[in-house]
Amino acid sequence: MAGRNKQNIGGLEAKRRRRTWIVVSSALVVVLVAAAAVVLTVKPWTEEFRHGGLTIAAPPSPVRVLPQVAPAPTNGPAPTAAGLTAALAAVVANPDLGVFAAQVSDADTGEVLWGHDADKAMIPASTAKILTTAAALLALPADHRVTTKVVTGGAANELVLVGGGDPTLTAQPDGKGYYPDGPKLSDLVAQIKASGRTADTIVVDVSAYTGPTMAQGWLTEDIAGGSIAPIEPVMIDGGRLEPLVEYSPRTPTPALDAGKALATALGLDPNRVRLGTAPAGATQVAAVRSAPLRDRLRDMMVHSDDVLAETIGREIAAAAGAERSFTGTVTGMTTTLQAAGFDLTGTTLHDAGGLSVDDKITPSLLDRIVTVAALPTSPFNQSNPAGDGAAEAAPAPLAALLDYLPVAGATGSLSDRYTVRDRAAAGWVRAKTGTLDVASSLVGYVLDRDGRVLTFALMSNDRLPGLSRPALDAIAATLRNCGCS
Question: What is the pTM assigned to this prediction?
């Protein structure tokens, strides 16, 4: 059914994750010298053609790169509602925005400076992950990990692979799978062999999760399209059939495939793999753990990973005492956010990642979460008093959300935006993207020309992303260029 799929073609939301290899060798020097000797490229070495010949410009002077990260100034002039309204007037009138709702706030004071239908419930697409990240940071420790185990089976010839909710296990020969620092199947195999246990059958236990494996508003074609896999508590590289490709087609049976990969690695017949449950009192034979939550949240946000979002959502559910299902995930997220004081009026969720077109969130809620994460006076960003002789406690975690957002023109789902149009905002805008056939959204923050941090939630529905996304980018770029005091 058209209009429900996450965009993953034409450079919209999907990108292949590139594994970067840095090679320093004499061969590189040879290539560079050879290139300099030929010099038939046009820029920057070619100055111009004169009298039928080619004039070669002198090479540029070496540039020393001095990267710096500095806090926003504390004395930037405060933006005003009138100044912001005047600056935004032209860009928010763009008809390519379709059904449009938005809110902009001052991150220093928390004051809402501008809004347009800010309390209108809109399809959020992947900006729903703002809620998931906030709930996870509020409910779980940053170093929280998930364990995948192998235990003894009900029969002497069986081993049971018990899924704990980690989709990041990898079977790559070099151990470098899609997810950085994901656990390795080879480590499970080594532990099994060291235990001396032998088996000819692998049972896969998926009982950690309950309920449907696909959410309301998802389409089965999104599995082959690479946006999602059925949500089961153990997967290899997120169920990707091409393990290192972000939007690779996914398997419809990720847990069973994980069991087959384990069987193959043990030299067993993969046809002797079945679903089942571990017997009560089973002995643990092997175990591996996921990367810490902080790392998985970063990967989820930067690359807009729906599988990670749903499995982290089930961790939130468990922390809230709810069942680990789609329903439990929504219960865990909403109760956690409401307990923190966020107004969820108008919010309807069916998943944690925003792939469902039946999800609805208001710009006012999305902007408020980012604003509270950025506020210097936020109770979630204050250090707790230390007791006598105790080290000072780390700041409360919600501010970490800001560091997980992609950087315009540089990282993740924003790496191919602000590179041609609105380039002045590249590097200054940090935001979570959201893209479906029927919705585009952008939620994050920007440092304006006066040195003031502005948070924003920009949401467009009922327009094709090829039209609405540039229109949203133009608004964020206007906020960057705004001296709206």
Answer: 0.85
